[in-house]
Specification:
Elements: H1 2-20, H2 25-54, H3 58-84, H4 102-130, H5 134-159, E1 170-173, E2 180-182, E3 200-203, E4 226-227
Helix pairs in contact: 2-3, 2-4, 3-5, 4-5
Amino acid sequence: MKKIFSLLVVAAGALAMVACTPSHDKTIANLKAAIDGESTAAAKYAAFADQAAADSLYNVEAMFRATAQAETVHIKNHQEVLVSLGIADYVGTAAEFEVKTTAENIQAAIDGETHEFTEMYPGFIADAQAEKVDAAVVSFTYAQDAEKGHAAIYGEALANIATPEVIAAAYFVCPKCGNTYAGTAADVCEFCQTSSADFIAFNATMPIAPVEEGAEVAVEEAAEPVVK
C-alpha cells in the first residue's frame, strides 16, 4: 500500500511540474511569422534599392540597402531564439511584393514598418512575456524599436523626395539589434549599447562625372556595406 501511495505521489508531482511548465507555442509561432516578415522586408528593400538606383536616387538606394541589412539582423536574432527553444534551422519565406516608383516604394515601406511596430511586435512581445521567453522579448523589442526608427527615416526621405540631395547619404546599422542611424551614428547604440566601431556603414555613390546625353553612365557599385 505504501509503495502504491508513493508512486501516486511521484506521478502527481510529475503532472504538477508539467502543468506549471509554460507552453512556448505562441512564441514559437510568432518567431516563425516574424522571420517570414523580416525575410519579405529584406528582399523587398533590396529590390526597392535597385529601383532607387535606376531612378538615380542614390541616397535612397543607400537607405534601403541599410534597412535591408537591419532586417537580416532581426532574422538572425529571431532564429537564435528559435534554436534555444529546440527549433533549428528555420528558414523564412518571403511573400510576394510589388516594386513601383521610388516614392510609392518608400510609402509601402512606411506602411509595413508602422504595422510592425504598432501592431505585430507589441502582440508578439506580450505573448513572449506571458510564456516567459525572455530572449524572445528582447529580440522582438529590438526589432520593434528598430522598425519605428526605420519608419521615421523613410518618412524623412519621402518628405524630401523632390529634393533628394538633402536626404541623408550615409547610414549606419547596429549588427546586434538592427538599429539604424541616418547621416551620423551615435557613439554607442541607444538600444543595445553596441559600439559604433562595430556598425555597418552604407554610403551613397553618385556618377563619378557629368554624363552627356546618350553616353554610358559610369556608376560605382552602390552602397556596399563597409564596417566602420
